[in-house]
């Protein structure tokens, strides 16, 4: 799994570098509010839209090339622990997890209120907004493989496999885009919102699937991904 996610990170960096080169050459080429018409054939923005959309749609299905952090929402990946969880302990765990998630949400909203003000003041343009979204796209996997500030500073989860907000990444990635009304931004925003709603509804209805105390597939002893290896080496240094 480390190799799969490492390869994905390299591809995402390549996409970001390509976009930066386009920006330096002609920043208008990153204007996505003009729509996705095919009058001039397939353009880089068409390909980028497909990359973003495909990356989000695959989260609706329990694919083995995805981390258990993403797949734990599905019934097929739930392996109940032998010991019945204590209701009081589960209630306390859910409360703590939701509280930490709300803190992340508050930070994210505050950050993007500031971003909206910068955009409204014309200090950031449409091209810069798209580049920021692509930076998030890359940072998503940096958080998985190397260091995640949300994990270390707020959520305090053991690893990505047990992360309460693992599938928030799609909505986070497209948040800047929503500032610019267009088919490109709002269609991606809709897909990301559906991914988020699916995740949150499942968490509310089946919280045991998300708990390493209740789902054996989230135990370290059952983990075959070892996505935490690089994070550990970084932390040791």
From TrEMBL:
<keyword id="KW-0472">Membrane</keyword>
<keyword id="KW-1133">Transmembrane helix</keyword>
<feature type="transmembrane region" description="Helical">
    <location>
        <begin position="104"/>
        <end position="123"/>
    </location>
</feature>
<feature type="transmembrane region" description="Helical">
    <location>
        <begin position="9"/>
        <end position="25"/>
    </location>
</feature>
<keyword id="KW-0812">Transmembrane</keyword>
<feature type="transmembrane region" description="Helical">
    <location>
        <begin position="45"/>
        <end position="62"/>
    </location>
</feature>
<feature type="transmembrane region" description="Helical">
    <location>
        <begin position="129"/>
        <end position="148"/>
    </location>
</feature>
<protein>
    <submittedName>
        <fullName>Uncharacterized protein</fullName>
    </submittedName>
</protein>
<feature type="transmembrane region" description="Helical">
    <location>
        <begin position="174"/>
        <end position="197"/>
    </location>
</feature>
């Amino acid at each position: 799994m480390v190799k799969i996610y490492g390869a994905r990170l390299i591809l995402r960096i390549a996409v970001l570098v390509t976009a930066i080169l386009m920006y330096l050459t002609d920043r208008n080429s990153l204007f996505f509010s003009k729509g996705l018409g095919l009058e001039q054939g397939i353009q880089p923005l068409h390909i980028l839209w497909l990359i973003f959309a495909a990356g989000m749609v695959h989260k609706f299905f329990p694919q083995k090339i995805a981390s258990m952090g993403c797949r734990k929402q599905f019934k097929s990946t739930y392996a109940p622990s032998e010991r019945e969880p204590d209701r009081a302990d589960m209630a306390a765990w859910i409360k703590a997890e939701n509280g930490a998630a709300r803190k992340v949400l508050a930070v994210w909203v505050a950050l993007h209120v500031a971003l909206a003000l910068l955009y409204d003041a014309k200090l950031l343009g449409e091209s810069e907004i798209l580049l920021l979204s692509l930076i998030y796209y890359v940072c998503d996997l940096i958080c998985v493989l190397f260091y995640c500030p949300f994990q270390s500073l707020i959520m305090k989860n053991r690893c990505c496999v047990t992360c309460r907000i693992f599938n928030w990444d799609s909505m986070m990635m497209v948040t800047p885009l929503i500032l610019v009304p267009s088919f490109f931004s709002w269609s991606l925003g809709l897909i990301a919102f559906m991914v988020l709603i699916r995740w949150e509804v499942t968490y509310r209805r089946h919280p045991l699937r998300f708990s390493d105390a209740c789902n054996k597939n989230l135990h370290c002893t059952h983990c075959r991904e070892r996505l935490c290896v690089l994070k550990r080496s970084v932390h040791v240094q």
